[in-house]
Amino acid sequence: MSASNLLIVLVIFISLFGMSNAQLNSTFYANSCPNISGIVRGVIQEALRSDPRIGASLIRLHFHDCFVDGCDGSLLLDNSSSIRTEKDAGPNIASVRGFDVVDNIKTAAENACRGVVSCADILAIAAEASVFGGRSWNVLLGRRDSRTANFAGANTFLPSATEGLTNITAKFAALNLSVTDLVALSGAHTFGRAQCFTFINRLYNFRGTGNPDPTLNSSYLATLRQICPQNGNGSIVTNLDLTTPDTFDSNYFTNLQSNQGLLQSDQELFSTNGSLTVPIGCDGSLLLDNSNSIQSEKNAGPNVNSTRGFNVVDTIKTTLENACPGVVSCADILAIAAEASVSLAGGPSWNVLLGRRDSTTANQAGANTLIPSPFEGLTNITAKFSAVGLNTNDLVALSGAHTFGRAQCRTFSNRLFNFSGTGNPDQTLASSYLATLRQTCPQNGSGSTLANLDLTTPNNFDNNYFSNLQNNQGLLQSDQELFSTTGAATIVIVNNFVNNQTAFFQSFAQSMINMGNISPLTGSSGEIRSDCKKVNGS
Ligand code: HEM
To answer: Which cysteines are joined by disulfide bonds (predicted)?
Structure first.
């Protein structure tokens, strides 16, 4: 093992462990189950005798577990009356494997020390043992197992080999994993197998061109076409690393240099033109329209037919360009406009920090992935805030912006008639409010009809939004869950804001500053756009 390989692997595991909470430590089972690492290693060694691929399969389980709501063993739960298993989600079904070995490890662990070692920790130890035989770094331990699975999350958060580097980078960034993490972790494709259906898009008709992927070495292409003929069996497997398929080494990266990466997502790490930046942060990227080089964020799911006010931003920009041309960025205009809008509606005012510059790219995939949806649940939404450095207090305070404005029926009608397939409305919805909302948004009515986000004072910036939550009159599921999720840390914050509008105003101002600080472009990064809709010179 060379020093550079070791470095790669350390980055991999520091990355994965970084997604868990800070209380993990390597001696967690020192007293309660001192031989756990030996137990895991023994079962894997036995399995490797008949299945040289099993180590690769096990490390992949850890990855697919960690990327969905953290490393909590949720991937291992089977279907039941309360669980929709993640195993059946698109990226997992007929693909992830090794569950029988995990079960064997669990049985051996339970025999040695009953009720002590979590399934989530077993995956972490098994991942390390699979890479090096279990002697390469101290695995941080102490995870507990989830009591729920997140089928939808597995479909959303796990990367697909064909979705493109920007999207995949955004999915990693959403979990605070950097581009280096992405490249290092992809290095796990130095062993294991992939099925034809995961890369056949590259062999015959890449992106509808009628030709193979031009970044595929021609002799490698010929080999792969023999293994995966057109209309052949999509489940045939081949080696992810054509040179040393069962060894954990750096040949994966050498393969990329010679255009012999197997998956599109592998080869793109090397063959994508230009430096890879993650366009996230307050950079005015939302304001860019479609062009040859821009896929507008305005067309991303959370924005299309929903975000508005662009014409007012354009008017502000024109006025500013007349007053002081080429000076004020579009990103700063949004920050100033946000403060002005809140204070004009009776809310707090604050000193807006300025000096942002504008991006020269948009990130439509990021907009689809990183912006919270009203339906996705408090855990997910909290994770999305924390991925950009915002805590639970920020989440509650900033949600208080729903004290004014409107929402379309389609953003909350899921709560009115058949909530989560129960055939009944959301039980956390006050019955008279439910009746009103059903009138505004009848079943099969127009999804674009508007309702006030704050039913009491719809145009004022005050703390009534929070009193509404206490009365079960939050409009969106994501609003009401701040108060109605049993045991959630958000409840006490909501209660505080109801009792103390000043505390809400102070928190809101501070959280707006925190949000405005997300990855600004400064110095010579980016540009000052002269038209917020277009990159300069385009
Ligand atoms: C960067 C985004 C990634 C994408 C798009 C991706 C996609 C895939 C796909 C499509 C397969 C083949 C599955 C099949 O044919 O059934 C695969 C296999 C594998 N992946 Fe990834 N993967 C990614 C990152 C990772 C990471 C971060 C790890 C672990 C740290 C990992 C570990 C593995 C391993 C070891 C295999 C082989 C498993 C086996 O042989 O059973 N992958 N991956």
So the answer is: 33-113, 66-71, 196-228
